[in-house]
Each structure stands twice: as C-alpha cells, then as structure tokens.
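Homework help board

Subject: predicted structure for assignment chain

Our instructor gave us this sequence and asked us to write out the predicted structure in token form, then describe one feature. I got the tokens but I'm not sure how to describe them. Can anyone check?
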Amino acid sequence: MLGSYGGREFQTPHLDRFAHRSLRFEKHYAGSLPCIPARHDILCGALDFLWKPWGSIEIWEDSLTWYLRQAGITSMLISDHPHLFEVGGENYHTDFTAWEYQRGHESDPWRTRPDPSWIGAPLMGRKFVPYDNSRGYFRDVAAFPGPRTMAATAHWLDQNAGHHDHFFLFVDEFDPHEPFDTPEPYASLYDDSWQGPHLIWPPYTSEARGKGVLTERQGHQIRASYGAKLTMIDAWVGRVIEAVERNSLWDSTVVIVCTDHGHYLGEKDIWGKPAVPAYEPLGHIPLMIAWPGVSGGVVSALTTGVDIFATLAEIFGVQPEHRTHGKSLVPLIRGEKQSVREYALSGVWGREVHLVDGRHKYARAPADANAPLSMWSNRWSTMPIPHMPRLRLPRPDDRAFLDRMPGSKVPVIRQPFRQGDLLPYWAMGPFTGNHLYDLHSDPLEEENLAGSKAERELADWLRQALKGIEAPDDQLVRLGIT
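My token output:
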C-alpha cells in the first residue's frame, strides 16, 4: 500500500519521505498474529502463537520496558489502541515510565451514549460496537483518535526529547485499522462517486463477493475508505517527522516504523482477517529504520517481529532473562552481515503454522481434526468481542496440569483441548489444506505447490524449527510432523 513499497493506489507522501532516508526492509514478516500477539513479539521478544491465542505479559517474562526501567532509561507510550487497555492486553503499558491513551477508537468504551447528531454507518454484518457511541464526538479531523495520537507524539518530542539522555518512545497507532472512518476531504478522496454513508466496517470473510456478502461496488468503496484512512494518518505522521526534524534528532535517534500485520481488502476475495492462511497482504509487512550515520537504502534480508525486540535490547544495552526468539538487526544496519536468520515462523494460535525462508512460504494445516491443542497461560484471557460480552474463554478444567515454558522454571497452567471444545475465534474456522508458494516466481500465491518434493523438504524444516524452539509437542502431532 505504501508508495515506498511500490504502492500507487493511495497517497502516503510523508511515510515515503521517511523511507527515503531510511533502510527499507523488503522481507519483513509478521510472527505472532494478530494485534496483541504481535505486540508481545515486539515488546517481549518471544513468539507466543504456538502456546496461546492472545493475552497479557506472563509472570515468567518481562517486557523491554521493565528492563529499561531497571536501567534508568525513560520510556513513554502514546497510543489509541483499545486492546492495550482491556482484558488480554492490560499490562503491556504498566512498566513504561509514563503513558498516554487517546480515547475512542473501535472497541474502546469511551462514551456511554452517542451524540444524537451521528447517524451511524452500515455495519456490514456487525452488531453494536463502542465506536457507535464515540464517533459523533469527533467534530473535525484533529479530534479523531489517530490524529490526536500523532499530535500527542509531536508534542511529547517538543517538550521532552531534550530533557532525557536516553528515551524509548513507543507510539502504538491503531490506524489504519477499521473502522475506516474519516472526515472530508479524505472520505471521498478515492471514491467521489459513492452515494450514501461510507462503508467503514469491512466484513471478515473469504469469498465475500462470491457469497453475495459484498457487491463489486461495495468492495471498491471499502477499499477506498481504507485508503482514505491511510492517507489521513500519513498526513499526521508528517507532524511527527517534523517534530523529529525540529528537535534535531536524526543524528542521535533511531526511528523505527513498523506494523503488526496487514489487512485483506479483496485480494483473493478475502476481507478483514478471517480464518485463512497468512497470504502476503496479511503477513508481509513494512519495516523502515532511520539510523544515525546510515544512508537510506534497501535491506533484502529476512526479518520478523521478534527481531525488533532484539534490536532494541542491543541499542539500550539490556539483556532479557526469559527465553526470546529474535535476532538483532544491528549487524544488517551496519553492513556487517547480509542475513541474520534462515527462516521465520508465523501464525495464529490454532491455525496454520507458517515457515518463510525468503523465497518460499509454507503454511502447514492440521493433518486431520484441529487437535490436539493446548493453551499455556497463568493469565487466562483471550480477545474480547464487544457485542458478545458473555463469550469468555472456558476456565481450566480437570484436564489441566502444570508444565514449564522453555527456559523457565515457573509453573504454568497447560490446558489441553480436544475436538469439540470451544476454541478462541480464529481456531474455529475451516482449513483448506497445506499451502506452499514460491514467492519469487509466484508473488500473488496462485500456484499451490503442496504435495511436491519441495513440501516434503519444508515440512522437515518446519519440524526442526518447532523442535528448535521447544514448541508444544501437541503442535507437531496436530500438524502431522512428529
């Protein structure tokens, strides 16, 4: 989508300008998915999608900010991300020196009733979400959560950057997440002929047009609404870049632009983030790093989310005590190495497990039923769904027992699941077998090479990779690669 990565559909001039002075990583892939698991990768440095679906920082690990606090380094969180302040994500902010939450995005229960002047927008199959109460209070573009987050970031830099010898500023901007809601002139920027309320809520489904969930015209409108939000937040990112320049920080400060995952906007007729393999639009994501004294350029090495944690840990000189899975990118940035990893693992708990080697992407599905599975956690939670408040993860039962996470002596509740048990969200969806794509010759992932000799080789590699990180043994059984 970004112009710096070849996108021409939507305008992102400020991020493109940042890319010009940065190292642009071409093969950066999401690890644990979706939102909160991806933040666990970055802030804790350990893949967790093989052990649990979604959740808080556990008692056997600490976040990067805990180690920074022990080292006397100032850290600041500025965010409009609701999941960081609800059950399942509620302790990622606690070890920051300070934090600021801009209210009102998507599932944030900011208001108890709507502004009566707000007429709403088509929900595309969804029921009530808290945004319905919040939206009417955004009177102009500066009042929307994303612009407020960027403005707060620029303000913090102006007020504080010169007062701390070292600082870690973590800006967790939720946009361009749905709802793809923007004021004019953005709302009509890419679809000025649309009549009626803009479609800001994408359906979460595959074969949406084929099933009649969306018409071709509606699909175009949703995609245009996404683009409008992307361009809007890009404009406000520009204010942060201006603050970096205004405070003369380029020569002393590392600036990283990354994301958690992509979003399907009609590719393969998939919309949202439904239960499907992590095709390129979802899993292949931007990473740009501006490093003092290093000119802009392209890095073709394979990287993933946990590598950002390892890089930050090296920058600040801290050493985590828990087991981590990342590789520092500093040798790549300094030109000392051409690669830091041979493969990356990716996935959603209970779904396909992906192995990417820079050329191939292998998505291994369950060999039969989606079992056995187990969840490992001492903080029992999963993603809340606002319109289903009674839906909660079943409590551990008499099948549960105490185990140990790799590298830890802390007892952890391990809850086995069997076929027929209620599983968290994405794990309940159907599967379409194994998928294998040669991304060099088939970047659109149209020719599935599953069943070939190459699959046998990659299946063996996946087995070795899972054993190498001491993944739960039931994952290997589930995938049929014991």
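Reply (TA_rk): Your tokens look well-formed. For the description, you could write something like this. Residues 344-479 form one domain. That's the kind of observation they're looking for.
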